[in-house]
Protein 1
Amino acid sequence: MTKKYAAAVDQGTTSTRFMIFDHKGQVVGLHQKEHEQIYPKPGWVEHDPMEIWERTQEVIAGALEKSGVKAEEIAAVGVTNQRETTVVWEKATGKPIHNAIVWQDTRTDKICNELAKDGGQDRFRPKVGLPLATYFSGPKIRWILENVPGAREKAEKGEILFGNIDTWVIWNLTGGPNGGVHVTDVTNASRTMLMNLETLDWDEEILGIMGVPRAMLPEIRPSSQVYGKAVGALAGIPVAGDLGDQQAALFGQACYDTGEAKNTYGTGCFMLLNTGTKPVQSKNGLLTTLGYKIGDQPAVYALEGSIAITGALVQWLRDNLGMISKSAEVEDLAKTVEDNGGIYFVPAFSGLFAPYWRSDARGVIVGLTRYINKGHIARAALEATAYQTREVLDAMNADSGVDLKALKVDGGMVFNETLMQFQSDILGVPVIRPKVAETTSLGAAYAAGLAVGFWSNFDELRANWGKDKEWDPKMDADTRAKLYKGWKKAVTRTFDWVE
């Protein structure tokens, strides 16, 4: 049977979906399901890995059924995932020894502070491109090994395995306890704080300091390569692509040239800039990370600005405050007012990520008066996403020495026209939304398709990219400067809250 499609499992922070694409990169099948967010203590965030695997199987079956696509028509399947979220499980049974510790979780702050006593927050940065922060997987693995009875002994013997969610999904997809492949790709490995950026292998010295046995770690592979064959509903189909979600979006947005950038608006916000085949160390609070590695070609690096809370702030207005009943309603509420009424909302719910890296920060709304109503709060919540993006872009311009000409955007929030216009206004550059906004899944499907020859080169993928809408700046420079100055002042009010 001829192969007509490439597909992707997209395992995100709040939901899992399976997407099927044709050769032109158009969506032909999609099924999506949410999973539970578990909050055992303030600052702790967990997922049930078994629930995630169940959802993965359900969305694969659902997308095939709804689209009428037969599994054997799919050339290859890729995986993309919430990065840094840490799973440790028994090799023999496939049972997790603890819930997955999610990227937003801050329980490892003591471990990070302890490690920073010798050499500071940037102790490992020259090797791994990352500051010591609760965000990354390495300290989360250590926490599990120290807090689950018997875990360390089992880890030394290779009886338990670690993976970010990509590794967990691929292991289960290719057979689990019955011959599942234990691999990760360079992009996900670069988020553990354990991989050396130059060698693209686990760093023995850091493993020793962090107390993570090598025996539990997956093999690091390129982002596009056949890792194994699927079992179950996709039986026999090559599993051939693996990219962390933000790198997958960079890949799906066809940012294959040095200096091209994208911003993904999801639970958090993530801007990546392709810096070519050499890692660029950041002096301005950004992360040096892997962009992708295709087969035997040289690895491509990126600078990344990570913002913890953007879309999650809209969910918070919905779920915690009950200001809206659906996330999409935030735009109408924000449009009931002309401006933010002089307030700023800094959503440092789990500290501040780029470019500050302050785990002592907590969220604030500043500038409140009797005049303020819920419309102003909704507007300030949207504006927070745009201001945080501006901070990251300023840092990128400073690090790379390249001024961005336009910003390609994707993710759920890009259909919020009010936000996109304000984003363009506060950046002073055009903001461009592509025809396929779900570029994360698309990027993983591209990586898988390239590995098996379903697509032959980057030119074919570039040809699939099309512009849907562009927003140009309408704000004058004085207003832009004044608003941004207010934001910077508001951010300082979040510092030093946690003793």
Protein 2
Amino acid sequence: MPRKIRELIADLEKAGFINRGGKGSHRNFLHPDCSMPITLSGKPGDDAKSYQERDVRESIEETKR
């Protein structure tokens, strides 16, 4: 079962990412140790796409290096 967008947001915030807002259903997250901002689209209750889960996982791993 895919995770929800709200779960990905919680993971990013727990890792220290800051929600910089966005337009519509898009949210931009920044972290000082991450080279690129990560953008999540969708309502909090929507199922996350596999590429969104991958991007979140890779961004969190990058901050740990």
Protein 3
Amino acid sequence: MSIFSKIKSAIFGEKGPLGSGHFGTPKADAAPAPAPAPAPAPQTTAAQSAPKPAAPTPQAAPAAPAQAVDVEAVLSGIAAKKGSDLNWRTSIVDLMKLLDLDSSLDNRKELATELGYPGAKDGSAEMNIWLIKAVMRELEKNGGTVPANLKD
């Protein structure tokens, strides 16, 4: 499982608001089951042969759209539950720690590669700042609601 997938699962749960798609691609829903065939009509006499209107075929109700996950509220809730004062809003290391993920340089390098970081993957402040904002943007693409100040 990719580092971003672990972050997403920790915030959204296993399925998340868009299924288990990757980087903004919702998982395709299974096709609804076809309606059962109507039962054959009983034999009728000539006097009863007037056509009767067919009973309407029940249609499957459309699936309700998934609710967007309020990323800030979820993360604030996790922090409050843990009694944590980690600065997850601006620090990728603190975000990963809050979610009980390995925040090592190797994992952050892997995350930087996954998300397309263009600079040197050396654990610099520049890389870490880019990562936290990129993670928030990707969470939003995957069905999260993220305030502008967390992704800009």
